[in-house]
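Weekly structure sync - notes
Attendees: PM, LS, DV (DV joined late)
Agenda: review two folding runs queued last week.

Item 1: First target. Sequence and structure tokens pasted below for the record.
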Amino acid sequence: KYTAVIEYITSLTKQGRPILVGTTSVEISELLSKILTRGSIKHKVLNAKLHQKEADIVAEAGEASVVTIATNMAGRGTDIKLGEGIDDLGGLLVLGTERHESRRTDRQLRGRCARQGDPGMSKFFIALEDNLMRLFASAGPISKMLEKSFGEDDVLEGGSLNWAIENAQKKVEQQNYSIRKRLLQYDDVLNRQREIVYDLRNDVIHDETPRRVLFELVEVELVSRLEGVVDAKGGLAEEFDSFLSSWMNVTFPVSVKVDECGGKSFDGLKDHLLERISDAYEAKASLEDPEGIAGLERYVVIHPIDVHWQDHLTEMEDLRRSVGLRGYGQKNPLNEYKSEAFVYFEEMMGSVRSDVCTGMFRSSTSSQSLENMLSVLSRGAKLEGPSDDSPAPDL
């Protein structure tokens, strides 16, 4: 094929006709350049490596006997102006060394000639060893041609050959369309999760009272943990004592006893524990800088979201790469991805809520405020809100 291309270029350059050689990759453009150099044919190469010079090279591509080698991306968007007398020779010749996988790309290459009323012509040289022909056009008319006896340098032409090439391109386009469609389906799963996370993040950023969002997350985390140790009627499981000692009283500076939790319904117990947490937080807030408490509350919520969301994106990318192997087990990879993504997201949101609960009493607007709170706790006291009929204690 390349021998035929060089012979064709040589014959046309002797006539003075300019030629634009289109290639599918930088490697092929450099290979053609070496072949042309061996044949002592002057030429210029456009492969998007010389950005500053390529505009000048394209501007001269329409002059007499000029040979220009270009990749798909090189020199696009620039009209090639024909030199004096080139119209009489037939204008610019666009020579394609291979059919692209997309018919649209072929049309773009053809469109580099005969622009703005100028004459021009396009011609493609194709070999049966090209990837497109080898992978997608091995059946049908092509296979019948292969059965015939012909030499390696023989030229194959005919309408059935053009049909086979276009049919091969259609197969590639359909395959690429299926890949893009499946990619969008995968992206849709992650996009829904992204909307939830960013809605939560924007709420706490723009809300004038970020404490509301903070306690919503605390309530959800508290309910999820209570569901494992309390039944719907308020019955306490054996694990409830461990729940108080290992999470409730450790995460929040409160001292909840088992005795005060018995006999309450599930909602009643939830409201009671939330009230104890709220009272403790009000006492902590009274020690903080009033102007900085809102910013602190935003940070307590946003920081865990940012950290865990980044880790979640990495896990989702790893999942997408590995889930395709489940097709060998007769499972739909997309359905498997959706179910696993839901589990990952629930775990991520649980980690975010847990960090919010842990951080709300372990952060402060200033070192002095933190020292005051630690001083109260070091005396064995708990952060409890003042009653309605008594003044706040001197902390």
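Item 2: Second target, run right after the first with the same settings.
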Amino acid sequence: MKEDLKINDREVAFDIIYRVIYDDGYSNLLLKNTQLDSRPFVTDLVYGVVERKFTLEEMLKILSNKDLEKIDQKAVVLIYIGLYQLFYSNTKDYAAIFEVVELAKKMLNKGAAGFINGILRSAQRMGDDLLNKVYGKGWEYEYSINNELLSMIKENKANTLEILKATFIPPKVHIYVRKNMAKIKSRLESNEIKFKEKEDFLIIQNYRHSVLTNFFRNGDYTIMDYSTSAVRELAPDNNFETIFDMCAAPGGKTLLLADKFPNAKIKASDINRNRVTLLENNIRRWGLTNVTCGVHDARNFDGNEYDLVLCDVLCSGSGVISRKPELKYKINYKMIEELNAKQIEILKNAVNQTKKDKYIIYSTCSILKRENRDIVDRVAGENNLSIIKDTTVFPSKDSEGFYACLLKKI
């Protein structure tokens, strides 16, 4: 990481972090909509601070004799930035402290700058002893995750520690390649872009859209996490005549089904007109002639029954925390209960939309049992559904988290 970056880059990072922590913003959206001089630096700083918020907060509590609520919010964010750079980046200590203190002078006053300087100097002196004190308080602080979400992850009976570690792994870009795989791979190699091939997906280490722009415009590939292909793999190899994707936008799973079942008539809908417009644009770019799009609330019956219904329901997003690190402290029991009510309503409506002896796929980008198998079990038991197979993909260095289940209406 360079040490001579414009101070403006740190100001931009500060603004995004502040809005995430105190204004309920989402880091990925704020980064996407911000013009940056040094995107890698700002992205690392934003994601790094946000994904370690609880850890940094606990450090500050140890270092300061003031209650956190009595410290100016801007000062808190500046301290978090300084602590992150001291302990988790390759920024030199003197540069990390100096730049943050200079920002404090500009944004606050000399008194606040002095307070922040003292906190960061104390952290520098304590070094690993400070980390050990924080980590010793439990996984909530070592992996910066709220206790309710941690408890729900443990309910999976999976390797909780591996899931927690995966939240710190920078996400790679996955692309689903429909055509011209050899040419796309050759283009990546000629531009020294590293990738891993997995079936008809490429997992890319340092993706640059400009390298593959023409392929993208021609619909040869689209950006989609490999874990999503579970929907395609679960779909039976039947000659379906009709398919309904109830929550389709932006259309990735519609594309997988359209490519697998080119002779089926597919209806793809979403509740939001803007999202449907995005869906329609994608369908045209991909050249799909067997898909029609429309605005529709997945909780309402549309008057038709289908051979296969996909309901990729709204969820907590617990499987994509590496892209949305603020979810580590936003997801709680109340949020899940509210989502569960909507998930149940959509899945029940999917039953109404499905012909007898035909199929439903229920999916989420969550890894929480409460949003996945618990919902499926409840609705299946009340609606004459047979659970054929389900799969949970847990986050890893090469994949985001995902859940999908195939059900049959009997």
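Discussion on item 2: The chain has a mean pLDDT of 94.
Action: LS to circulate a short write-up before next sync.
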